[in-house]
Amino acid sequence: MLNREFKAFAEKVAEAATTVVSSCAINPPRGTSYAFAQLGDTIEMDVPFRELSFEGVPHRTNVRLQPTTDCLVYLSDPPFLVVTLNEIEIASLERVQFGLKQFDMVLVLKDFAKSPLHINSIPTNLLDDVKQWLE
Q: To the nearest 10°, the Cα dihedral for 82, 86, 87, 92?
């Protein structure tokens, strides 16, 4: 029941945001000389793929990271993690060896001024799921 209520909430937010974006594209707010979006643009909510989720350590604690169509997210407790696929230049899987129970993933971002994101201690049995999401 909670999932259905949240889905309805997300759909209402997307609908309201689409209305606001369309209105701003037609009549930009005062003081701006640009439009925020093209008329007819829609905003869609991204839903995590639970079957591709995996455990990892992006900061200091082991958390469940959930891939979506466009992002890798952890939103349950701070520090939150949101990395879009558009930001990632290279994903390097490290310590992938026979006999090891865990591997690490380093995400090198397109903005080389930012440091790479290290996600450590991902269980080796989830390697295929991580690869499938990255592809």
A: 90
**Residue 33: its pLDDT value, please?**
46
What DSSP string runs through 34-57?
S-SS-TT---------GGG-EEEB
Burial class (CB in 10 A: 0-12, 13-18, 19+), 56: buried
CATH class of 50-134: mainly beta
| Paired tokens of 132 | 């499938």
Query: Is the model's pLDDT at 29 over the cut of 90?
Result: no
Separation of alpha carbons 74 and 32, rounded Å: 34
Pick the closest to residue 126 from 48, 49, 54, 50 (CA basis).
Answer: 54
